[in-house]
Amino acid sequence: MLRIITFFTLIFFTTLTFAQVAPETDELPLMSQWQLYNEEGLLVKSSNFLGNPLVIHFWATWCPYCKKLQPGLDRLYQKYQADGLQMIAVSIREDEGATPQKELEGRGMSFKTLVNGTDMARNLFNVNGTPTTVFIDKTGHIVGSTRTSDPSDPRLEKIVDYIVEN
Q1: Which of the pair, 57 or 9, is modelled with greater confidence?
Q2: Which residues contact 1 (CB under 8 A, 6 or more apart)?
Q3: Fold of 2-165
Q4: Are 77 and 110 in contact (CB under 8 A)?
Q5: What phi-psi label fits residue 24: left (phi over 0), alpha (psi between -120 and 50 degrees) or beta?
Q6: Domain boundary assignment for the chain
Q7: Angle at CA of residue 156, ends 4 and 20, nearest 5°
Q8: What are the two backbone dihedrals, phi and then psi, of residue 19, each rounded to the nearest 5 degrees?
């Protein structure tokens, strides 16, 4: 039953997401293991998020579309954080001297960012541009991703609600 619900959810989100289904199986792909540092030099690992729904937001300080999307993501984070939602931004393709965490804080965002994530984004999540947002369920399966920059797109909340509830 869960697989049927997942299948119809993925079909519904095809205009928003680019879900990947593993070849010759109806299971969703598992998030690869990764580790990155934050601006303060603290190592953060994918294993820190196991057992919780996770949103990974790939962005850059120079990206105007990221700046537009982030208030919507922050509202979702604030709304679902008590239900276990984890949200982490990953800064990619930054200019020399960029300070992504300070930039997010200056914009009033409450989620944290990791830095120097360009290789991780490209190699593990097939990220080709910003913003790209990836949705991962409690079991570590990638449910879908989007390149939308519309902070009020109702499909964002629907997929966040899905990963929180399942």
Answers
A1: 57
A2: none
A3: Glutaredoxin (3.40.30)
A4: yes
A5: left
A6: 2-165
A7: 50
A8: -65, 145
DSSP 24: T
Q: What is the pLDDT of residues 144-157, one digit of tens each?
A: 999 999 999 999 99
Its pTM stands at: 0.84
Cα distance between residue 87 and residue 42, in whole Å: 17
Least trusted range by pLDDT, from 21-25, 48-52, 57-61, 119-123: 21-25
DSSP reduced 3-state for 21: coil
Cα separation of 48 and 86, whole Å? Answer: 10
Do residues 112 and 39 lie in contact, with contact meaning Cβ atoms separated by under 8 Å? no
Contact between 22 and 28 (Cβ < 8 Å): yes
Q: Are 127 and 57 in contact (CB under 8 A)?
A: no
pLDDT tens digits along 15-48: 444 443 333 324 899 999 999 999 999 999 999 9
